[in-house]
Amino acid sequence: MSASTCTACGAPPSGRYVLSMHGEVTCARHPADGRCALCGRPRQREEQGWSRFTATTARCPTCAAQSVDTVEQARSHIPAVREDMAALGIRLDQRVRVTLVDPDVINTGGRGVCLGRTLQRVEEGGAVTDVVGIEIARGLTSTHFGATVAHEIGHAWLAQRGARALARQLEEGVCELFSGAWLKRRGTEFARAMRQAALDNPDAVYGAGYRAVRDSVAAHGIAAVLDSVCGRGRLP
Ligand SMILES: [Zn+2]
Ligand SMILES: [Zn+2]
Ligand SMILES: [Zn+2]
Fold first, then answer.
1. pLDDT in tens, 67-92
2. Which residues surround ligand 3, an ion (CB under 5 A)?
3. What are 164-184's pLDDT values in tens digits?
């Protein structure tokens, strides 16, 4: 990916510019018609090569070129993500099936774009009994796909470890931590940009949760944090 020339005018950017998570630059002076749902690149009106992501969002050509669109493509990525998570100490006792779904199925309004969800069996009274599957939005970049699988494996792992009825901010914060750890292992510039975006996320559940859990890990270590979350339902 060339970081030196503008995606809209092809010249080195003059003045302020927008940097996508791929490191592509676009002069801020070009009128934009929305942004890529995955990397933040501004879209120029009539610009070719963009594709639909959800009903209200689009994907840029760079993200589309790396996309996980088919079951075969997903299957080729999943074992490496499971191995990476195992290397981080996160192993599922029972394997959980990963399926691809239309992004619109898991995006029914609300802020931000939802990239995946964990399907859990809930017994009467609201207690989660087990995790029956993980759904990932079709059409993510392979890096988004891996980070989302890592996040959802986090939910499954918490459920299998008996961490029930956690505060949402704590549960999503732990899962964002796992996702961030996977992105760190991945080691690419794009993965680094995605991890930074998750850390900077202004969302009160996902971003604030991630920062709280990360600060706790820095103070107490990962083992103490996970023991406390699974045993007492809170940070140490
Ligand atoms: Zn330009
Ligand atoms: Zn993009
Ligand atoms: Zn989650």
1. 999 999 999 999 999 999 998 889 98
2. 172, 175
3. 789 999 999 999 999 999 999
- 42 C-alpha to center of ligand 1: Å? 11
From CA 198, how far away is CA 188, in angstroms rounded?
15
Nearest CA among 79, 75, 67, 71 for reference residue 115: 67
Average pLDDT of the chain, as a whole number: 90
Q: Phi and psi dihedrals of 131, rounded to 5? A: -100, 125
Extents of the domains making up the chain: 17-65, 67-232
3-state secondary structure string, 209-221? HHHHHHHHHHHHC
Distance, in Å, from the CA atom of 189 to the CA atom of 58, rounded to the nearest integer, reads: 22
Half-sphere exposure of 55 (CA within 13 A, CB side): 6
Helix (H) or strand (E) holding 230: helix 222-232
